[in-house]
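# step 3/5: fold
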Amino acid sequence: MEEPKLSESKEKKFINNKLALKILFIGFLIVLLLIPISMIENLISERSDTASKAMNEVEEKWSRSQQVTGPFLIIPYQVIYENDKKMVERDIRYLYILPESLQINGNVKTEELKRGLYDIIVYHTPLNFTGKFSFASLSEENISAQDMLLSEARLVIGITDLHGIPQQVQGSWNKKNLAFNPGVNNVLTSSGISSPVQLSLEELSEDISFSISMNIKGSESITFAPLGKTTHVTLESDCITPSFCGAFLPEKREISESGFSADWTVLHLNRNYPQIFRDGTWRESIQNSIFGVNLLLPVDQYQKSMRSVKYAFLIIILSFVVCFFTEIMHRRNINPIQYLLIGLALCLFYTLLIAISEHLNFSLSYALASLMTIALLTLYLGGILKIWKTAITIGALLSLLYIYIFILIQMEIYALLVGSIGLFIILAIIMYCSQKINWDEPKIKNRE
């Protein structure tokens, strides 16, 4: 009578050891599958870098992001002083005068340029500048009018990339035509255009109006510096995915399926530099006050693909847990090599997603890649388990998991909250199912 009991005890011990070894091997496979997952992440980074290089190449030939600074007035003046050797010296310095009022109007037309597989958004827009300069506070600078070299005064507009000027710039200064030429040499901008202006002592006692029309090309974004004592910028565009950026958001904005319109109004009190200053640099303060709009692509497939890969470890673990529970509850044996093939199929989903998303939009690509993966695993598990109802159930659970991951990668603000709650529910379901298993024997407990 003792021999059967001993034999039964050895059998239970053998079964427990076998389950423990299988659990350890499944854990080893999960860690091993981190290698192809990291390779997929590198692939996404590589494809993203290739897309960035293609974008940079197109931007170099078309024009880069444009920042418009100005117009502003530069008036040279002379300073006469006595040096240490008691000799009289004469230096030329510069006075910067910002406009009393500045209004900029633009109508940004976007267009997609192709470079291989990649679409790059570029734009062109007419810009109209109107406003006036006031010299009423010039006396506060304590510079004699006779020391000002008014004949050498220049009106300057800072433009980031001069490739983006396809036509001659037209303008008027106090009803006189302006003649713009490239090249600037001042502390506010490193690139731009300038025109000589005619100033006289009599004109310094009155306001001088100006009007400038120019066409500008660029890519990614267009931004402005609020140099006017009152700066008003109005933009219209056919871009349906704008992202307003910089130090100031528009006071009014409308976004529709046909494009957007936006209005900014910025006062001199809203930024940290004066209307008139000397050679002392205020460039950093001006850079900190720029505002404008980014013109974004509707979908960044590489960013979303990278976010989806972050959940690959979760999908593999849950898939292996479901297969393991199914194996025990239905007394089926899934070979470790078959577990490895299942894990590789789950990893292959991400390469499918990347490849398809380079030709179709991300949502459709995700749906196609997940359907292909789910169909493959359902057919494979059906062939292994010989229980098609169970295989279809596992496929349905995998479908719910992919839908859940898709919802997470679309979220930004609530992704952590929804992800944490979802994981809690999944863990609770696994814990509940594990109660139904008699770990001494690979079968379900009988519960009333």
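# step 4/5: annotate
The mean pLDDT is 85.
# step 5/5: archive (pending)
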